[in-house]
Amino acid sequence: MTSGGGKGEKILVSVRVRPRNDKEKTRNDICDWECVNNTTIICNNNLPERSLFPSTYTFDKVFGFDSPTKQVYEDGAKEVALCVLEGINSSIFAYGQTSSGKTYTMSGITKFAMNDIFCYIQKHKEREFTLKFSAIEIYNEAVRDLLSGDNNQLRLLDDPERGTVVEKLIEETLRDRTHLEELLSICETQRKIGETSLNETSSRSHQILRLTIESSRREFSPEGSSTLAASVCFVDLAGSERASQTLSAGARLKEGCHINRSLLTLGTVIRKLSKGRNGGHIPYRDSKLTRILQNSLGGNARTAIICTMSPARSHVEQSRNTLLFATCAKEVTTNAQVNLVVSEKALVKQLQQELARMENELKNIGSSSSSSAGSDFYLLLKQKEEVISQMEEQMKELKWQRDVAQSRVETLLKATAEERSSRMDEHSMLSSVDFDADLRRRSYDSIDIGEPKKMNFELFENSEEDDFLVEDNIIPQFSRYNLYNGWEEIVQKVEGACMESEGEQSRVEAETVVESHDDIVDKKAVSEVLSPRKVETISSPEYYMDTEKAENEEVEEISTPEEDENAEPETYELTFKKSDFEMRPSVEVQETQSVKEEEHEKKEERKTSSSKQAEQHSNKEEDSQPEEQSEETVKVDLIPVGAKLNEEKCDKKLPQDADKDYRSESSVTDAVENNTTYEALKEKVKEMQRKIEYLMSMHTSEQQQQLSPSFRRDYKSPEFFTTKRSRSCRENLLCVRSPLWFDNLETSNNLNASPGRHMNKTCSISFDSGSSMGSTPTDAESLKDCDPETGNSFQEFVAGLQEMARQHSLDSTPEIDYGIEIKPESPGNQVSDPHNRNEETTNDQFEREQAHDLVENAVPKETDSTETYPEKTQVATGQYSSKFSDFERQQRQIIELWAVCSVPLVHRTYFFLLFKGYKR
Ligand SMILES: Nc1ncnc2c1ncn2[C@@H]1O[C@H](COP(=O)(O)OP(=O)(O)OP(=O)(O)O)[C@@H](O)[C@H]1O
């Protein structure tokens, strides 16, 4: 086998010109050839017949007459010959005519090569060399083994790897140099034996000495042991002279033909090989010589041709032909390769190693590809699993949120239902709700109170409460012209069912509340808070201005002065304070559980029902005295929660009110005598007073911060009607009242001296009656003195309120604060004679009479009041076109506020009692 890529290499062609032998010298055969240098040889024959031939020849090496064989070997054969040691086939040819010195040169080169090879082997002990020598002779196209010692012709065999081989050729393994010399000697002898018989001086056969060298490393090499196997052939060709020149015939001719055949074929092959691919078919098989030397001629071998020639002119033609052959030969390119012979054991090892390497590569490829693909798949799977996990978490979260939301919705629905149910119960117990509904449905279509109010009531009309109340057979529907009677009818109906179980229980609760209050309230603090100094500061105009500025101008009035000018004559301005609706200073505030509040409110409702029943009796008397109802306009806000009304105060009433107070007192007294429920009402009033006292103390600090400016502002805001309607009005009545009440107490001392003070005060009249009665209760202790149980009778309390209202009306105060501010801006408060009223009075007449009373009491009596209050002059001189009295309007508006603020039943009842009481 060959390894390594060999490149094309020209046949090394050398020319050796032997010296003239003795014979040639004897014949004086002129030497025409001259070796001008070691590569060029020229012919000095100037004969005209030689003129067509070139005279100068250049070859790889040109050896002259005196060139020793050693030099010829060294320069023209050694390199090629020693290639065999490297595993490259090589061939050394000697070509020339007979007696030109071929054998002489070739025998010398072979010896030198063999010598060098042996020297090399000796130098390279690490390698093991195997030298096999064989020698054949080709005579007349017959191959003969020179080492066999016989004349048997050998056949040529075609081997796929080795090419043409000589069958049964003896390859003698050289033991040493001597052995080689013996063999060479044998070969020479055998060749001479044959040639002697033919030509003593000339060889007629081709001799091929083959030395095959196999070399391998002696030590183990991981690369694997390899054997270099190459052959070096030393070919001594027969003389190339032409047969004609031999002058032979018969057997000689035949010999010559066979010699020439091999030589002619060799020439043809060389010529063709010199032409390269253009040379066409190479006729190796045309002669045994060319078949045996096929690899050496243009194949896997390095070749060196040494052309020998005689310098004698007599051989000039033969010398020229030799040079022509040499010229062609130097054009032939061979492709020599290293012949690596691998032993079976080494080959097995090498194959095993190669197999293992390839298996590893396959495993690596598979593992790498599978690992990369597997890793990608694993990562993708992991990512998807993470996404799925996240989605599952999100689903859980969403489900949880959904459940929570559903739970909240259910809770809200349940709470709403409970609240609605409680309200329904409350409204069913309190006919004032229906009163409101009736008022909204029938009264407001004729009363222009501004857009916000309309919207508010539209909302009420669509509420389910109204539907429920309408369907409730217990609650009768009232006429807007006789609200009083409707109220009292309800009281009568409800009171019958609730009156019996209400009395003692409510009384006990009230006492409990008072006791608790005594333990908690810091009386000193309450007294300090309620001092006149602080009240004056708070209620001053500067305070209102500052506060309103600080509140970012959130004030929205229901009816502005400009609007009032174009509004209906009976338009009133209602002013509330937001904080009053936000607070709920009742006893029930301490009870955190809504259930307790509901129970308490229900109790109060039952109480109210009983109160209504009691009022129904008194109302009958009021109907007989309608002229006093006009003064209820002032009474609205004068609910004397905690007010101290005693006989001493009553004695200090103004003279013009004395008569009315007396009549009222007597009327109440008659009611007590004629109706057993009057005592129950008294108890309720007492209970309310106690509660109010307690709440006043509890919420003193808050009251300081929540005074009438914000109250007025918030209530004037349209949004308030839609957002704050559910708040209890108790806080309006209780928490606000206290400080302003003391403020009024303070201002009441100068009531008559400063008639125009209300221009600068918005909360002026509510409890003026307290001061007008002579006493100025400025602390909680004084409030306790107002207990009708210990000091004043209820008749006296009501009489005090009447006196307060009377005083207020005389003072012509245009504003009523404490939750309701009434400005009788109607220009036509024309009055009718109040003394013409009686029980058979029609509604219109009743209203006119009420209006008359109101105007009569409201219009200042003093002559300079017109200048002070120009709007009141307008009231006194204007046209009173409305068929409703101011009192009823005020009453309606208060009732409106009940609905808007969800005023508890107890306070509504309280208002109602005050209306009635004032009438009395
Ligand atoms: N270069 C040389 N120097 C001295 N003598 C030489 C040289 N060449 C050849 N001879 C002599 O020439 C004679 C013939 O030489 P040689 O036998 O080698 O010729 P040849 O070409 O081999 O002929 P053949 O073809 O018939 O065998 C020999 O006696 C040899 O000694």
UniProtKB/TrEMBL annotation:
- Which residues are listed for ATP binding in this entry? G96, Q97, T98, S99, S100, G101, K102, T103
Q: Which residues form a coiled coil?
A: 341-408, 671-698
Give the Kinesin motor domain ranges: 10-332
The annotated regions of Basic and acidic residues compositional bias extend over 575-585, 594-623, 645-664, 834-864
Question: Which residue stretches belong to region Disordered?
Answer: 539-669, 819-879
Write out the GO cellular component annotations. microtubule
What would you give as a GO molecular function for this chain, any one? Answer: microtubule motor activity
InterPro entries in UniProt? Kinesin-like_fam, Kinesin_motor_CS, Kinesin_motor_dom, Kinesin_motor_dom_sf, NACK_C, P-loop_NTPase
Gene3D superfamilies documented for this protein: Kinesin motor domain (3.40.850.10)
Question: Where, by residue number, does the polypeptide cross the bilayer?
Answer: none
Q: Which family does it belong to?
A: Belongs to the TRAFAC class myosin-kinesin ATPase superfamily. Kinesin family. KIN-7 subfamily.
Q: What is this protein called?
A: Kinesin-like protein
What is the native source organism of this protein? Raphanus sativus
- Source lineage: Eukaryota, Viridiplantae, Streptophyta, Embryophyta, Tracheophyta
